[in-house]
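User: Reviewer 2 asked us to show a designed sequence for the structure in our supplementary figure. I'm pasting the structure tokens here. Could you produce the per-position amino acids so we can include them in the response letter?
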């Protein structure tokens, strides 16, 4: 670990650097998976999904940069090589055989949900280490990922007209 005048303890800094590198791997993997979907999308929703997946890739790149820079600012080394990412990512492998647009949407939905879940854990972990700045960084990432997940999921969610109506009595717990 490199010397720094940051006032976090060495123990906290080591732990936070490890957290950053774990999620750096996921952010880089998410970026590459979004590009895979962007390049290979086909079907009636091509333009919208092509642009959306490119946007997700760009955002994931920004997350990766912010996460890597936080770890380095604390005295660490960012582990962002393909080999390091491949060893450490928590995301499932992207299904290269995904052909139809729904398969790409489902794969991106799963990747975003996994990444978001990990980022929320990082918020808790950084908070437990009394590192409010890292917790804040991951909170910002979490908000962005949740928005991207919403936009991707909207392509496969039922519309209100398609959804089965729920009777009011069922909502109140009443029986007929």
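Assistant: Here is a per-position design you can include in the supplement:
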């Amino acid at each position: 670990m490199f010397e720094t005048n940051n006032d976090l303890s060495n123990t906290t800094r080591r732990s936070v650097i490890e957290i950053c590198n774990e999620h750096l791997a996921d952010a880089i993997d998410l970026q590459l998976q979004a590009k895979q979907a962007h390049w290979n999308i086909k079907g009636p929703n091509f333009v919208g999904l092509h642009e959306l997946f490119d946007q997700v890739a760009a955002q994931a790149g920004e997350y990766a940069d912010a996460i890597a820079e936080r770890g380095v600012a604390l005295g660490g080394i960012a582990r962002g090589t393909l080999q390091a990412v491949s060893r450490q990512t928590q995301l499932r492998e992207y299904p290269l055989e995904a052909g139809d647009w729904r398969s790409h949407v489902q794969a991106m939905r799963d990747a975003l949900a996994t990444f978001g879940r990990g980022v929320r854990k990082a918020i808790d972990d950084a908070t437990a280490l009394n590192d409010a700045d890292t917790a804040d960084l991951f909170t910002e990432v979490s908000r962005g990922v949740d928005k991207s997940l919403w936009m991707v999921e909207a392509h496969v969610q039922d519309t209100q007209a398609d959804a089965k109506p729920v009777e009011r009595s069922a909502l109140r717990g009443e029986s007929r």
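For the response letter, you might also mention the following. The first helix runs from residue 10 to 40. The chain has a mean pLDDT of 92.
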